[in-house]
Amino acid sequence: MAELSGPAAAEAQAERPFPPGEYPVVVVGSGPGGLQFSYALRRLGIDHALISEDLAAGGMFRRWPFFQRLLSWTKPFAPAERSSRAYERYDWNSLIADDPAHRALQVGFMDGSSEFPARPEMERNLVTFAERTGIRVRFGCRWESTRRVEDRDGERFVLTTSDGEYTARVAVFAVGVAEPWRPPTPGIELVAHYADTRPAETYADRRIFIIGKQNSGFEIASGLLQWASRIILASPSPAKLSVNTKSLVGVRARYVQPVEDHNLGGGVSILDASVDSIERAGKAFRVRVRRSDNGAGLEFEVDEVIAATGFVTPLRDLPDLGIATFGQSKLPAQTPWWESANVPGIYFAGTIGQGSAGLKKHGIPANSGAVHGARYNARLLAERIATHDFGAVVPRDPIGNGDVLPFCLDELQRSPELWHQRAYLASVITVTPEDGIRQAGIVPLATFLDDGGPDGIALTIEADGTGSIYPAVYVRNDGRIAEHLLPPHPLLDFRTSEHRDQLSAILGTLGLR
Amino acid sequence: MATTDEIVDDLSGFALFADLGSAQLQQVAHTFEERWFPEGERILRQGLTGSGFFVILDGEVGIVVDGEQRTTLGRGDFFGEVSILLGDAPVADVVALRAVRCMFLAGPGVEGFLVANPRVMYRMLQAQARRLRNANRWRS
Question: If you ran DSSP here, which 8-state letter would residue B54 be given?
């Protein structure tokens, strides 16, 4: 292959930044997690290489969801200015920026037909964020393997890629949870995975068996309702619905039409059963299942079987370095700061961050698996790496006594971090004799509760699965933690006199007002 | 990382699930969620609401009351059920003494699970009776 030289080489190099070499930090992935993290790290002045095997920004949104609309909303009209931080509560899809001109980009790409963006609209949102904020990515650079080296400069990681080797003290992986996974069911290799789903019309008049009753299974069932002659969904445990769990746990409301169809006898069957085997029966498939309630066997002959059995994290050889994984998605075990629990210096951004589960109060997870949670995690992770690994100092603003109560009321009402990452991220104020009263910023709630530190308060929003959403305040006083739950409000207004009085009494335990 | 079948194998060896058949164990493995805690991390926090029920697959935890470790639990043991059954916050911290892999069921799901699986409820009652007996022996 002829090599470019002169101006042509310079131009090609400019188009493909970050040639192999040594960098303080190397970041892998150009989905929303990698873009948001790179944006935040650059704002903190930490040099890094951002590489991606894809040919453009967008990550999984370049392919999925199949049936073209997201599950996350962006409300064109909301009770907050679009350029404000408060608007982020109503916009789950835009990446977050310091410059108001770079905020709330998603709404500008929506055609008004739905509050749920179409997949291409989300992709355009992410590509535009990268372009307007000047995020540079070395596309077409595939991470292949990883090793650790130690020399007089200390321990570093070497990432071998299709373009060469990258060496860095810190490696951040934002590679999504996007590798199709199948259970070891006999015959599973004969059938398609969710990731191989064809255009809907090719399923016309087909009998379809879907393995899995989570969002991906119901997404396919919903998309094929008007095409398939029969749909069967099966997995061992009953389907959870988000409208019942009153959280994002379970199948989202947009995909529950098959449930109504099942309940009304319309041709969809939803079974609690485990799949024992799948085999060919001429041009069809024979699927044998066992009911969960009584162990009885059932047999089906269908034209198509789709394994909506989820995805795993494409960690390549990271487990060989000692990275522990858990759960069906093979998520890496992480600290509350999204660092590997086993291998210091390796961090995770984007949807992989859900491996750092936090308190999970009442079983309700944080939204780290979605853009509207992961975008805040990424910003905190950048700050953590800048301060913890590179000695950067992030100034903390003082706050006058007498201003604490209004500050807290405002944070509880408006802070999108607290609303989207409930019982997971918290806004903290610390009190010390040396520094007085200071805003300590947004931190993972678990770190405030478990890591010790000066007296202070942590504010967050919580929900208990009954439909109540309410403020929670944690007070750290002489090392002891006390939990205070404020009352819910039917219109989610937490600035009432009742909230003010209760919060005032709580702050009073630390002499704050 | 364990597959569902491996988790079913683990659960089938625990006294709590000893009366369940393989289809029911499959359902347990799908109903509960696998979680992982590094050494030193708090799994339950004394005085904080909203906890859950845990069954230890691997590792060891310490039961810590007001900073003092009272006992330890290991593979096959479970914890968190008392605060859920009583609707109170936990009266102890539960801390991972080494890396802990466990199965987790959120508090709001525990009653429905036990009612649907009375043999598990009976086994849990047996375990609680043993703990009560041992506590009474200790006092006498």
Answer: E
